[in-house]
Amino acid sequence: MSAEEEKTPLLDPEDNPELQGCGGSVMCNPNRLGHRLLMLMFMCLLGFGNYYCYDQPAALEQEIQDVMEVNTAQFELLYSLYSYPNVVLSVFGGFLIDRVTGLRWGAILFGTIITIGHAVFALGAQVNSFLWMEIGRFIFGLGGENLAVVQNAYAVSWFKDRELNMAFGLQLSIARLGSTVNMLSSEKAYFAALNGLHVGRPQAIGFALWIGVMFCAMSLGAAFVLFFFDKRRTRILGLKEHGSGEKVRVRDVKDFPLSLWLIFFICVAYYVTIFPFISLGTVFFQDKYDLSSSEAHVVDSLVYLISLGGAFVFGIVVDKVGLNLTWVIVSILGTIASHGLMAFTFITPYVGQILMGTMYSLLACALWPMVAQVMPEHQLGTAYGIMQAIQNLGLAVVAYAAGIIVDAKGYLVLEVFFLVWLCLALLCAILLYMVNAASGGKLNLTTKERDAMKEREKRRLAEQEGVTSVSEQKLAAPITDMSTSQESMDSASGSQPGDLPRSRLNRVSVQADPPHVSLD
Fold this sequence. Notes:
Blueprint: H1 3-7, H2 33-54, H3 56-59, H4 61-68, H5 72-126, H6 130-159, H7 164-196, H8 201-237, H9 258-271, H10 275-289, H11 293-300, H12 302-321, H13 324-344, H14 349-367, H15 369-374, H16 380-408, H17 411-438, H18 447-476, H19 481-493, H20 499-511
Helix pairs in contact: 2-5, 2-6, 2-7, 2-8, 5-6, 5-8, 5-16, 6-7, 6-16, 7-8, 7-12, 7-14, 9-16, 9-17, 10-11, 10-16, 12-14, 13-14, 13-17, 18-20
């Protein structure tokens, strides 16, 4: 086979013919839903280890504080150390993905980093060194959020304009499966090592953490699988390589639309009321509701447990219904109610946690896909990177502040602190609703309205291409007897030869110039 034949796409993405043999089967054809869902499974596994390990400190909060002899603020520093480097590196990582590594190598790079980082974290616990645990957590943070950026960009690449909300929802579900498995099993692994293997308490913590290292290695394996199949898809469909599209410049950030910045602020103001709360939730439920350690872990894991199935269901609902922005506002209002119940009443915490898990799942399915609705695909890595950076800045500051508040004032003041952040998120969401309405309402369209808008755009572009094609044919046509006849007519009428052809050329050049299409 020649080099040119090797580069020829096997499947035209526009004509979408069927491949023959195994390549044409549901599970092998990149254009078929079955194959895309198979790849979605590996995209989900890509983030499983990251999310399992992110909240391992929360699952072992009491044990780490007792064995390492640290207070709540020092314990929360483990979360801040994860988040601080990502204030810069999420942006750099997104830019790196867009311009240098691409999705495939980026996934392998960041998967390797989280595996090494959590291994150092586990080793630090095993040798009873909180300093090494902090170093390992910092290294883990260097890759964790960037891996999430890669995961989001992979989903957009494979599912944009199709089942994107469902893809984001399922990714969140499997990610939260990792978080839930961690919350329910890490303490059990600790006691199994302590009582079954008869090791010391630091070694028992290390044993539980090494299980997380194995899950990180599994995520790294998923990155290699995606590398192979994404490259295969690019070759078969004749797609552009990731990062080979339009040039991405850092200064483009200043041109990001206001709607995108409001999405960023909603993200940070909302998520700082979820993750720091969960990291401190086990002790909170024990203190306020007098729950046992095991029951407190179950209650604390309910947010992740609900999102395990809820995110997938809500993803499908948002795909079918649309109205992303409306669902975001509903989610924020529901989370305000959840924190309010746990702050000011003694109603069983199961009610508040189930409500929080439901609203958290709904918001994630509606909020994150909105970035792809306001940004071109070649800038999505950078946009998601900045979103992660702002989120991590908020999480780093708020997590440490939450520890200080608990040590100094208690959990009631902490809940009021979270409610203030949620009110800010609601204010930004309302402002986004107004900005969106003023600019055409793209973020809050129903699915039918969005599909109709896409069809109108396709028809307009097709008509424009048709006009351009006809114009080019006219320009390329040789001047024959008709032009000679026309010159004779011009001479008879006193006109200069060629006046009419020049007039026709001017009209054609206007028609052939396509109008600018705004991506915002």
